[in-house]
Amino acid sequence: MKDFLSDLSGPANTMDILNLVFLLTLAVGISRILANIIPLPLPILQILMGCLLASPLFGMEVELDPEIFMMLFIPPLLFYDGWKIPKKEFTEHGGQIAAMSLLLVLVTVVAVGYFIHWLLPSIPLAASFALAAILSPTDALSVIAIAQGRLPRHMSHQLEGEAMMNDATGLVSFKIAIAAAMTGGFSLLSVSGEFLMVALGGLLIGGTLSWTVGKIKQWMTARNLYDPATYVVTILLLPFAAFYLAEHAGMSGILSAVAAGMVQSRVDMLPVKTSTRILNRSIWEMLDFTFNGVVFLLLGLQFPGIVERVWADSATQSYAMGTLVLYAVVLMALLLAIRFAFIYAYHWIETRLFKPRAKGGENQPLLLITTLSSVAGVRGAITLAGVLSVPLFINGVSFPGRDLMIFLAAAVIILSLLIGALGIPYFLRFLSLNDLEEHERELLKARRSASQAAVDWLEEWSKAQSSDELEPKGSVTARIIDSYRQEMQAMAMDRDDRADQARQLHQLETDLRIRAIQAQRRELYRLRKRRHIDEQMLQTLIRELDYEEAALQ
To answer: Is 304 exposed, middle or buried (0-12, 13-18, 19+ CB in 10 A)?
Structure first.
């Protein structure tokens, strides 16, 4: 499988690509199972699996085309980041998110870029800035997985917002620095102006395209031309279209994909068939998990070869492999120090300029919150996808320091994951969390309000019926109203006997309904086995039962 994606001609090469896709997808699934057994962060486990596949035992060897890699992985990952970001919390914490994703990224690029060039002069200054830029994005998904839902809500939302925005700003800075490295000219002033232009252009193109797709969907729905499957396929292609159009226009395809995701999440909340939302959400969750896993597996597949080349080059350079590992540790320490100082300074200034907000975990000690936020700055798939997209050649000559850049980026990712896996659970022990309970109370209140609204509507509907229709319809209405009232009693906050009984009855009804659905499935399978119904009819009926059971659960 050598020279994968570098030469797409020939049936043998096509089979190699298909085999690689199948194997990587299978490995991603296996890694998720192993993560429940082996106490390691999932990304590290996937990197180790990739190294195992690259070992002589399996002999898999992969050579990636950086441009195709960037086009294949970056747009969908950033699109889904923009889609799932909680908009309300993003607005509430907009100041900190903007500071972390713009100012902190700028400070990191400049300080770490000069430090890398001073540490390893063999990496040109522009390439050093590129490496610093791609090390700036954080990975909220890995942090949330490590924390297992125990992070304060406000911190979790801030990390998600920061990860989405600094993914975009870090990648845009990275691409500009790579372009500077290839042309040989670099100026911070000109780069800053170019950054603003391509960023705004990318946001405008992606947002406009996504808004247009939403308007077309509304137009088709109004004329009964709407088809869920076609719409979902269109949404799958949307991030690639946004990326391509923006890049073709000379703007930021990265920010275009983010903007498309953010606008599309608003469009998705408009009235639409339930099946469309279920299908859309399921497909994107699967793609996000698969693409993240494949990126880390590809690093593992390439990592032994990178280490081998770096080891060979170290014989002719002024550094040894042990020295490079030490450099990676120092680089990680610098990134942590910069992040800690920036977060502490931001909160210190905020508490003196504005009144402290008494929300959830925000009243925690400043030093503890700052330390936890610092170790939560885990690097992940975006950093990896970006550094793997560094060009192989410049004007026919190997890109200077490419293997060193990938080696250092991979080492920082692994170190940050280890620090997060050890540090986050440790510092969480010292937090006095109460926002999880508050969140549950808010959810319960919303459910009770929704149930009461349903009861009120049913009662009004029943009163509006004529006397001739009231008797047959009244029993159905009364049964539904009684079901809602049982649910409301089950959600009551007090712990008296009546509430306990209501909860037990509600649980009993739910269990009975689920068991009845299971009996229906068994009967349908029996009818299919005896050929009383065909395969298509079985699939249709089973799908209906699946949705019904999903609603109950």
So the answer is: middle
Q: Which residues pair with 394 in a beta bridge?
A: 397
**Token pair listed for 293:** 């896993």
Where does residue 10 fall: left (phi above 0), alpha (psi -120 to 50 degrees), or beta otherwise? left
Give dist(CA 407, CA 152) in Å, integer.
Answer: 34
C-alpha 388/C-alpha 30 separation (Å) is 24
Q: How many CA atoms lie within 13 A of 441 on its CB side?
A: 8
Nearest Cα to Cα of residue 112 among 377, 392, 348: 377
What pLDDT digit, counting tens, does each position of 303-358 carry? 787 777 777 766 666 677 788 889 999 999 999 999 999 999 988 887 777 655 44
Largest pairwise CA distance in the chain: 96
Q: Which range, of 18-32, 45-59, 376-390, 491-505, averages the lowest pLDDT?
A: 491-505
- Burial 508-529, CB ≥16 within 10 A → b, else e: eeeeeeeeebeebeeebeeebe
pLDDT range class, residue 226, cuts 50, 70, 90:
low
Select from 452, 364, 442 the least CA-distant residue to 88: 442
For the chain, the average pLDDT equals: 76
CA dihedral of residues 351, 356, 359, 360 (deg, nearest 10): 50
Burial of 53 (0-12, 13-18, 19+ CB in 10 A): buried
Name the band, by pLDDT with cuts 50, 70 and 90, for residue 7: very low
pTM above 0.85, yes or no: no
Nearest to 83 by CA among 225, 244, 215, 214: 214
Could you count the other beta carbons within 10 Å of the beta carbon of residue 394?
17
Write the burial class of residue 352 (CB in 10 Å: 0-12 exposed, 13-18 middle, 19+ buried): exposed
User: Which 3 state secondary structure label does DSSP give 63?
Assistant: coil
On the CB side of 314, CA atoms within 13 Å amount to 16
Q: Is residue 210 predicted with pLDDT exceeding 50?
A: yes
CB of 79 within 8 A of CB of 239?
yes
- The number of angstroms, rounded, from the C-alpha of 517 to the middle of its chain's C-alpha atoms is 34
Name the DSSP letter for residue 361: G
